[in-house]
Amino acid sequence: MLRMSAMAVTLTCAVLLAAPFAQAKTLTIGFTTSETGKLNADSKPQLLGFELWRDQVNTAGGIKVGSKHYKVALKYYDDQSSAGRVQQLYSRLILQDNADFLFSPYSSGLTATAAVVSEQFGKIMITTGAAEGKTYRLGNKHLFQLYTPADKYLKSALDVIKAKSPKAKIALIYSNDGFSSAVAKGALANAKRMGLHVVFDESYASDTTDFGPIINKIVASGANVLIGGGHYADGSTLARQLHDKKVNLHFISLLVAPDIPKFANLGEAALGVTVPSQWEHSVGYKPDFGVAPSAFTKAFEAKYGNQPGYHAAGGYAAGLVLQHAIEKAGSIKTAAVTKALNGMNAMTFYGRVHFATGAGDHGLQIGHDMVLAQWQKGANNKLVSQVVWPASAQTAPILYPLKTFAH
Amino acid sequence: MYKRPFFWIVLAVIAAFVLVPGISGDVGLRESLLLGAVYIVLASNLNLMIGYTGYVNFGNIAFFGLGGYIGMYLVTALHWSVWLASAVAGASVSLFALLLGLGILRLRGAYFALATIGINEAVKAAVSNFSPFGGASGMYLSFSSFAPLGGPRHALWIIYFAIVVLMGASLLLSLAIKNSKFGLGLFAIREDEDAAIVLGVRAPWYKSAIFALSAFLPAMVGTLYFFKNGVILPEQAFDLTLSIEAIVMLMLGGQGTIFGAAFGAFVYEQFRGFLLVSPLFSQFQLVVAGILLLAIVLFLPGGFMGWVYRKLPRLRKVLE
């Protein structure tokens, strides 16, 4: 009898001790990130966004799936900013690391390469940092894009022009790289559709440092509005040289560069320059689920000591959207989570998230809008970035037209 | 050629590349070996220029990238089979290299090396502005393009086997040239071009021919590789770093030797792959790779095969 009691006590203790371990299931999310190479600066904040989401989910007890809770584990490798090893590493993530879900690498090219593997194994891949829309028009079933597609990047800038001066003469100049070219191509098509007048359309090499000849052509074309750009180096140089040459433009909207805080170091040359952005920390979205924009910003600043940009927000949003879909599906099975993602049309801290579900464009982001931020003078004449478009996210009225130079 | 031991070694290597992942069905191993096979093709064909002829070519990646572009265009726009597209890409790029070679191979030494960097950049710029090739935003392959090969899962295996066959073809091509009169002419050019001309070697023709030959298989592999990737972009196709890495592979294995080129390429790929996923080294994998390469260049200037030949001279007839 005594022996039986001892055995019962031992078994009870064993069950009680084992209980927390039995609950601690893990959900592995695999991806590659560019820890080295030219994409590192953009890829790093995205990784920080993933990690912040993981930490918050795990602190809160994990992802709730029915009666179970899953802790999140991130498994990632360095893709060296090169497509060469992406398929090898994604195969490894799926087969050896047993990743349950995938996030995309940073950049459209690497994402398209990874998508061949994720589709091969039927794994869901939430893509972030991959704006090129072509990838989603190739017949995929498991890709879900968070970024507004590249061909809509300058749509908000065109909306401003249409609203403020529909007869404006637009100069479209852009870096001759894949992303900027795709953006420009989309902008040109949108401008035509909206009845806007593009008087100058030209690309430049991404390492251009002297924009003199191009600026002369812009002036000669009679353009009074400029949209385009590329990345930080060329965009900031272009903005400075436009100011130095006292080119009278009513409106300037450049890709990427003005979204980097150090763009404000250009001083007067930065004033009034706008940038289309996937997300700004000052947006006033009211989310249907998850954190508010201000709560995300606060948590990011507390953890990393700096303000989050849209790359970081995109990383966090990728996790948040996947988590919501899993919880809604009540399952981690691919078919159930895919169904939940296909049916998603919700507002998040990052903006609206709604995926196309047609066979020809599955996973393409159709709900998210770009916001337009503008460098304006704040307290003590210090330059601050304000969201000026659309009205739902606006933090300050737009400066339009910009101050003109006396010649 | 089949009487030479190295011929059978090549066949054994091909068999190992096919059978080991094929029987185990290990996709991770296949992906690793595939990159190894691609690098072996690039290094072996570069060896024809650097090791056999003595001309440093930094632009060999242009052949790989251009082959990829031509092949992907034929597959995506004209809906050709990937096999035919690959063969046509190889022939087209070879012809392009022949015509190019007749012009730039008048240059020697550093001038030729500089010109090849220029060619890579010029081809990249031209492709980036060529609309039928998708311009700067490249070309993307529909997932349905894999359907004729049985869907992505089967297609990736088939492409892998095809690349392994081309790897074997590269090694056998190197062996055939090495043991031919044509090869002797190339070696003569490498040792002293002026003397070779005096002795009757038609140097301009020999150099152009080897330049064109060294473009053929990389261009074919380019088509298959980018078909497998599903996307081709100028910065991926004409990545100068890969050209430089191919030269490093040659130095590692021993330029001028067929086995050395292949060994250097394979070891380099496996080594970088190991460092990337190693929990211990992944954070500073480039530093480790750099230090080891520096050590090899300093202490084994003839590469791995130079050291092997010095220690075991008899192996020279086996591992060519």
- Percent of residues in helices of chain A comes to 25-40%
The ordered string of helix (H) and strand (E) elements of chain A is HEHEEHEHEEHEHEHEHEEHHHEEEE
Strand order of the largest sheet of chain B: 1-2
Radius of gyration of chain A: 24 Å
Shape of chain B: globular
What is the straight-line distance between the termini of chain B?
A: 12 Å
Classify the beta-strand content of chain A into a percent band.
Answer: 15-25%
**Shape of chain A from CA axes?**
globular
CATH architecture name of the largest domain in chain A = 3-Layer(aba) Sandwich
Chain pair with largest interface: A-B, 39 and 41 residues
- Distance from first to last alpha carbon of chain A: 105 Å
For this structure, the CATH topology of the largest domain in chain A is: Rossmann fold
pLDDT averaged over residues of chain B: 87
Give the class of chain A from helix and strand content and strand pairing. Answer: alpha/beta
Quaternary structure:
heterodimer
Order of helices and strands of chain B: HHHHHEHHHHEHHHHH
Number of helices of chain A: 11
How large is the radius of gyration of chain B?
A: 19 Å
Strands across the major sheet of chain A, in which order? Answer: 2-3-1-4-5-6
